[in-house]
Design brief:
The protein is mostly helical and 120 residues long. The chain is built from 3 helices and no strands. Keywords: Membrane, Transmembrane, Transmembrane helix.
């Protein structure tokens, strides 16, 4: 079939040129087929890779949401403790004739000697 096409394309050039044209068309069609097969396979691989990335991203989002929820609970509990400590210091300062010393003293008692250490 390719030879017939080649002979039809190169009728005046002779048999050698028609044979060369047939081989050129055969090689060109084979190269095109290989290129299309490569593109199809590459695209399929990219879809597989994209699906893996999307699954990993979904796992990360779920873990991030769980960590955010846990951090929010811890922050809420810590804020409650800090507010309660501050309220006790305010009450001690209000009941004393030296409010500054009473408030700071209460905070020191509540802190248990933590001083400059960060909360754990």
């Amino acid at each position: 079939m390719i030879s017939i096409i080649a002979y039809a394309l190169a009728p005046r050039l002779g048999a050698r040129m028609a044979t060369f044209t047939a081989w050129a068309l055969t090689i060109g069609i084979a190269a095109l087929a290989l290129y299309l097969a490569y593109c199809w396979a590459w695209d399929r691989g990219r879809e597989h890779e994209r699906a893996k990335w999307e699954a990993a991203a979904e796992l990360l989002e779920d873990a991030d949401a769980a960590a955010d929820a846990e951090a929010l609970d811890v922050a809420h509990d810590m804020k409650g403790q800090v507010d309660a400590t501050n309220q006790r210091a305010r009450d001690a300062a209000a009941a004393s004739d030296d409010p500054l010393a009473a408030g700071i003293g209460e905070l020191r008692r509540q802190g248990g000697g933590q001083g400059d250490q960060a909360a754990k």
